[in-house]
Amino acid sequence: MIATLLLLAVASAGILAPGAKLEKLATGFLFTEGPAVDRHGDVYFTDQPNDRIMKWSPDDLGMGGNIVEWMKPAGRSNGMVFDHHGDLISCADEFNQLWSIAPDKKVTVLIKDFKGHLLNGPNDVWVRPDGGMYFTDPLYARDYWKRDPKVQQDGEAVYFVSPGHEKVVHQVTQDLTQPNGIVGSEDGKDLYVADIGANQTFRYRIQTDGSLAHKHLFCSLGSDGMTKDNEGNIYLTGHGVTVFNPEGKQIEHLDVPEGWTANITFGGKDFRTLFITASTSVYGMRMRVHGFIGK
Asked: Residue 140: how many CB atoms within 10 A of its CB?
C-alpha cells in the first residue's frame, strides 16, 4: 500500500521542476544537433552545417552558463554520445563514418563502411554498458558529399558495433523505413529506435550477441533524437518535445518556438536540465526527473 501511494505521488508530481520555464540558452547557429553529456554535466552539441562541435558548461544553478566552440572542423558530426572512457562517439556525416573523439580531439575512425560499401549516413548513436554501440543509418543526401547520394546499403537500418578492440559491425534491423533517433536502457536490456519514416517508435530486447528481438510498437510517433530519464520516460523530438511513460502513454508535451526540434539530452551538474537542440537555437528546462551520462 505504501509503495503504491509513493508511485502515485511521483506520477502526480509530473516531470518538470516546480515553476520550470523553457529558456533559450543561445541562438545564431545554422542547425543544432547531437547533444551529448559528459560525466561533469557539460553538453557537447553540433552546429552541423557549420561543421563544428560546441560545448555548453552550465552555471551552478544548472542554467545559463557558457557556450564555446570546441572543435572545428568536426567531420560534419551529427548525433553523438559519450562512451564510458570519456571519448565522444560521433556520427561523422561528411564521409559517412563513425568516429571516436578523444578529450584532446584526436580522431579515431571506428567504422568506415559495411561489407565494403559506404554507409548511407550514420545519424544517431547509443553506447550500451559493456561498450557495444548501436547506430542508425538513414539516408539524408547532403550537398557536400562527393559520393553518389543514393542508398549505399540494402535499405536504411540499425547497426551494432561489438565492444572490445576490434570493432565488428553487424546489421541488426532489416524492416525499418527510416530509423533515426535511438536510446537504450541503463541496464543494457532494451533499445528504443524511432522510425521517423513510418512515424513510429519501437522497443527491442537486446540479446547477448548484440542482435535485437521481441520488436514491440512503443508509440505511434517517430522522432529525430531521443533521450530517457531515471523513471523510464522516453523523450521524442520533432515538433517540440513529446514525453511517453514506460508503457508508451503520452504524459507531457513541450512546445519549442522553432521550426524543428532535432535532439535532446539531460545535462547540468545534477543532470536535471533538459537540453534541447532546435534549429538555430539551444534551450534548457529544469526538471524534477534526471538523466544519465550517455543519454
From this structure: 13
Cell for 225? 533524437
Interval 53-107: pLDDT, tens: 999 999 876 677 899 999 999 999 999 999 999 999 999 999 999 999 999 999 9
d(CA 217, CA 234): 13
pLDDT digits (tens, 9 = 90+) for 231-259: 999 999 999 999 999 999 999 999 999 99
Predicted structure pTM score? 0.94
| φ/ψ bin of 67: left (φ > 0), alpha (ψ from -120 to 50), beta (otherwise) | beta
Grid cell 561533469 in the structure block, residue: 40
Q: Which residue has the cell 553523438?
A: 80
Interacting residues of 99 by C-beta distance below 8 A, sequence separation 6+: 75, 77, 89, 90, 91, 92, 107, 108, 109, 110
Provide the grid cell at 140.
Answer: 539524408
- H/E segment holding residue 13: helix 2-13
Tell me the DSSP string of 48-64.
GGGTEEEEEE--TTSSS
pLDDT bin (cut points 50, 70, 90) of residue 167 is confident
**Cis link prior to 73 (omega < 30° from 0)?**
yes
Cell of 232: 523510464
Residue type, 242: T
Q: Determine how β-strand 212-219 pairs with β-strand 226-228.
A: unpaired
